[in-house]
Design brief:
alpha+beta; Helix Hairpins; 5 domains; three-stranded antiparallel beta sheet; 15 helices
Length: about 550
């Protein structure tokens, strides 16, 4: 526990150091930031003068240079402003530094606005070039110019917001700057929303064209679709930045969030905002109402037709099942009951599946790709369920070749008992002591199957022994008489009684009567009992195992 507390303390100290880098500036760091700001201001002045002198591409490059340095200056000023505002109540904080920072912030308020106007002019010129562009390369180039300009404009709006917050923290009224920022945010959010909706519509139109366009122009359409998708993503990214800034200004963004979600398909955490959710619901309701007004009657007729098709094919599937069942029952084929049921069920389900496919086609669903997809899914599922399919295949082989049927007494897969239930996957065997065993069909089909009750007649194999001193013909007559007088022993095939083995302590007779399969154990038990009783009555011995031992004693 103490070790854990130490770790948490170190982690807390580390996070504290990271969380407060600006408020812990040293004197040398402050001087370094001031020096950096001074050098950057000189560079900005130089590149602004160059921008006024030059034209064309060099003018754009010089503008990019001083905008880059303005960003560096604002980053350094931001660190100083955070330090000053966080130590505003500290007497040690230099009033000179506070005045220095405040002067720079006031200066940046005007500079940022001037640069925003400059960027807006750049965007207007880039937009004109974009509208005149005809080749794919020109379109891509002008799109890139517009994206870069929009990104820089968003950065300046964020910088104006930070600058205004620092001014208010230092006690200066920045309402005019914030009002100007709010105007910009609303204007460019509306513009981004319109551009996003327009781009989405163009992407949707191209997707429709690609579905039926000839192969020779699909390449150009695909390239245009890629450009538009890139433009849509960048526009959505820019709009997301604007909305985040509007949230910080506590401006209403619910209608803009709806466009973001519908255009990009990405649901942000703002969807849980009540205004955003209500706007989404209202717009969705309006869309549904319009769609129902235009397609409602056609949809109702299609639904009625689909219901009629399903009802008709349900009745047809039942009729086909009855016809198949009747045909199998009246045929000369020796099929098991389960196999007949299987064929009946398959025929019925195939007819019903055809009805489902016809019903789905009423909604314009392409059946051929669906069947191809089902085939692929079937392949994947089949690969994943190899063992189950092996049992299924074995079940089909058992149904076709019929080594046993329900009610048969079998020995298979190391178990013996009566088959109580047979399915395509497993076989349920009820053992002689009334236990239910579910055996996979692959285990049964891959092993030796002994069907005890497959034949109507069985031979009962028994062995009875007499002593060496007993009368062999008399014993044979007694055994044959027992078999002849038993009502369940069949006359044909004829029973057999033969002296089989001269054993160590007995003479062994094999007794083999033929009986009906269901009488096997009754005859076995009855004959065994009768032999013991008759041998006792006829003075015929049933010898115990014995051995003669001769002991020889030798004199020492």
């Amino acid at each position: 526990m103490f070790h854990f507390a130490k770790i948490m303390l170190v982690l807390f100290c580390f996070l504290s150091v990271i969380a407060m880098p600006a408020s812990a500036l040293t004197e040398s760091e402050i001087q370094g930031l001031q020096k950096q700001i001074t050098v950057t201001q000189k560079e900005i002045t130089y590149f602004k003068q160059e921008n006024q002198k030059t034209k064309g591409e060099r003018r754009i490059l010089s503008a990019m240079q001083f905008l880059k340095r303005e960003k560096q200056l604002r980053e350094a000023l931001d660190q100083l402003a955070i330090y000053v505002t966080s130590n505003n109540k500290n007497a040690d904080t230099s009033k000179t530094l506070s005045a220095y920072v405040l002067a720079l912030l006031n200066q940046q308020s005007g500079v940022i606005k001037e640069e925003i106007l400059l960027i807006e002019k750049y965007l207007d010129r880039a937009q004109v070039k974009h509208e005149k562009a005809t080749s794919t390369l020109d379109i891509m180039t002008t799109d890139q110019d517009l994206e870069n300009g929009t990104r820089i404009l968003n950065e300046h709006m964020e910088a104006l917001f930070k600058n205004s917050m620092h001014l208010e923290e230092l006690g200066v009224n920045a309402d005019s700057d914030l009002a100007y920022l709010d105007t910009l945010l609303n204007a460019y959010s509306v513009k981004a929303v319109g551009q996003l909706e327009l781009t989405k519509a163009e992407v949707d139109n191209l997707s429709d064209l690609l579905s039926f366009a000839p192969e020779d122009i699909k390449k150009d359409l695909t390239a245009k679709a890629a450009i538009l998708n890139h433009k849509k993503a960048k526009t959505a990214e820019s709009l997301s930045q604007l909305l985040a800034l509007m949230d910080q200004r506590q401006l209403d963004t619910s209608s803009y969030q709806h466009v973001m979600i519908s255009a990009t398909g990405q649901v942000s955490g703002d969807v849980f905002n009540s205004d955003v959710a209500l706007d989404l619901f209202q717009r969705s309701s309006e869309s549904i109402e319009i769609w129902l007004f235009e397609n409602g009657v056609d949809l109702v007729w299609k639904l009625i037709l689909i219901v009629l098709i399903i009802i008709a094919f349900t009745a047809l599937s039942k009729f086909v099942g009855k016809m198949v069942s009747s045909g199998l029952n009246n045929s000369s084929l020796q099929l098991s009951g389960l196999l007949k049921e299987f064929f009946t069920s398959i025929a019925s389900k195939i007819v019903f599946l055809i009805g489902i496919l016809i019903a789905m086609s009423q909604f314009g669903i392409q059946v051929t790709p669906l069947l191809a997809g089902l085939g692929m899914v079937g392949f994947i599922v089949g690969f994943a369920l190899q063992d189950t399919l092996s049992n299924f295949a074995s079940g089909l082989m058992i149904l076709i070749y019929r080594p046993f049927d329900e009610g048969d007494l079998v020995e298979a897969a190391g178990v013996s008992g009566t088959v109580s239930k047979l399915s395509l996957v497993s076989t349920t065997i009820l053992t002689l002591d009334n236990q239910s065993l579910v055996v996979p069909n692959s285990k049964i089909w891959g092993d030796v199957i002994r069907n005890v009750t497959a034949q109507t007649e069985r031979r009962v194999d028994m062995i009875f022994s007499i002593g060496y001193s007993d009368d062999i013909p008399k014993a044979e007559n007694v055994l044959m008489d027992i078999l002849s007088n038993h009502k369940s022993v069949l006359k044909a095939p004829q029973a057999m009684v033969k002296l089989h083995t001269l054993n160590e302590s007995s003479l062994d007779f094999v007794v083999r009567p033929w009986v009906k399969t269901e009488d096997y154990w009754n005859v076995y038990w009855d004959v065994t009992r009768a032999v013991k009783q008759r041998f006792d009555a006829e003075d015929i011995s049933i010898p115990f195992p014995q051995r003669d031992i001769h002991i020889y004693k030798s004199e020492p």
